[in-house]
Write a structure and sequence with these properties.
This protein is an alpha/beta fold and about 400 residues long. The chain has helices spanning about 1-35, 40-70, 125-130, 165-180, 195-205, 220-240, 245-250, 260-280, 290-295, 300-320, 325-330, 350-360, 380, 385-395, and strands at about 85-95, 100-105, 115, 140-145, 185-190, 210-215, 340-345, 365-370. It has two domains: about 1-70; about 85-220 and about 290-395, Rossmann fold, CATH 3.40.50.1820.
Length: about 400
């Protein structure tokens, strides 16, 4: 956080210096044209240029240092001691020629590996999972992966080249890396929102690599989900007499959306639904702690910027590629146990679609686990129960 404050101060000073340079330059040109140039003007201009250059150099050094010193905190017990066989790493790995970042955390490096697939596409939840699901680290080696186009891996691939297949290929490459490094023949998957769909894609194509999958905030049919969300937002807005929102939604039209402003059109109803869930007294601990997460030690200053760029740019490019996917028809048979952790009050990913999917799904084991005080994020809303249910489901496989 100190680095971020310093960065903002230096940025403001740089902007002020640049404005001063422009002003001094204009004054210098005017007086030169009038042949009334004063030596002091040129001296002031030079001082401004030197000050601006100094601020830019300091900012560059600060950004570089912040990137190089980013880390994940060590594992500590209740006495502040680090367990002998624990692991806490923030490392860059090469997956199919793309350099990407993962965090690896656990009290025992010989424990089963659990790979958490973040929401998005373009989202990073490396810090959020560490805060919210720290108790899983006592039972698993918990791996968080910044997918291409997100957070620390924002530059792993050009945004225009990212597709769902990019994530599948890289997710499998990461799985094989983890299996080899920790000498395990299979690993566990937990996927959140978009990550829940990616989890389905992975276990469908590479069932031999996974013990079981938990999908939370489960996505089933992307296009239908957007239409349902849009209609739900209008329904809520009408009940509240929110005419301005209704007009904005009508102006955008019914989704799915395509083009360069998908994120901005979708945000109108998605943010509205998120606020609606956050205001629901039946939902515990209702939202993300974004300022805490983006300020975490895992992210350097450039990563903090890419924290938001991924949500906007990557989401906008990739999400519209997913509209033709329907799990109920495309992924009806899976050879891996699948469990769906659903918030009773989730109005972002319609739970009715998940219930329909479970009815047609052929899998070695399948079930819905309901979280009665949750919305779209049971892993945040009811983290204690979430950890307990993960242990319960995965202990069977």
């Amino acid at each position: 956080m100190i680095q971020l404050v310093l960065f903002l101060i230096l940025t403001v000073l740089s902007a002020a210096a640049l404005a001063g340079i422009i002003l001094q330059t204009v004054c210098f040109v005017i007086t030169r044209l009038k042949k009334k140039t004063k030596p002091k003007q040129l001296i002031r201009l030079r001082k401004m240029l030197i000050f601006f250059a100094l601020m830019m150099i300091l900012n560059t050094v600060l950004i570089t240092v912040s990137q190089l010193t980013a880390s994940t905190p060590r594992i500590v017990d209740e006495n502040g001691n680090t367990p002998e066989n624990s692991i806490a790493e923030l490392i860059k790995v090469e997956l199919n020629g793309r350099k990407q970042w993962i965090s690896i955390r656990g009290w025992d490096k010989n424990a089963p590996v659990l790979l958490f697939l973040a929401g998005g596409p373009g989202g990073t939840q490396m810090a959020a999972v560490r805060y919210e699901l720290a108790k899983l680290e006592k039972h698993f080696v918990v791996v968080n992966w910044d997918q291409p186009g997100s957070g620390k891996s924002y530059y792993a691939e050009k945004t225009k080249n990212i597709t769902a297949q990019t994530y599948i290929e890289n997710g499998y490459a990461l799985t094989e890396y983890l299996k080899e490094r920790f000498s395990q023949d299979k690993i566990y998957l937990v996927g959140e929102s978009w990550g829940s769909a990616l989890g389905i894609f992975l276990v469908d194509k590479y069932p031999e690599s996974y013990r079981a999958l938990i999908g939370t905030g489960q996505m089933v049919d992307f296009a239908e989900t957007e239409r349902i969300d849009y209609a739900k937002a209008i329904e809520i807005a009408k009940s509240k007499g929110d005419i301005a929102l209704i007009e904005r939604l009508n102006a955008n039209g019914e989704p799915p959306y395509y083009g360069k402003d998908v994120i901005w059109k979708s945000a109108v109803y998605l943010n509205y639904l998120s606020a609606y869930m956050a205001a629901n007294p039946k939902i515990q601990n209702p939202g993300y702690n974004t300022f805490r997460d983006v300020g975490s030690s895992e992210y350097g200053l450039l990563d903090k910027l890419n924290f938001f760029r991924g949500i906007v740019n990557t989401y906008n490019h990739v999400y519209q590629q997913l509209y033709d996917i329907d799990m109920r028809t495309d992924y009806k048979k899976l050879d891996v146990p699948v469990y769906f952790f659903l918030g009773r009050y989730d109005v972002n990913a319609p739970t009715a679609l998940v219930e329909e999917y479970v009815q047609v799904l052929d899998a070695p084991d399948k079930r819905i686990v309901w979280f009665e005080h949750s919305g779209h994020n049971p892993w945040i809303n009811e983290r204690e129960k979430f950890v307990g249910e993960v242990l319960s489901c995965f202990s069977e496989n």
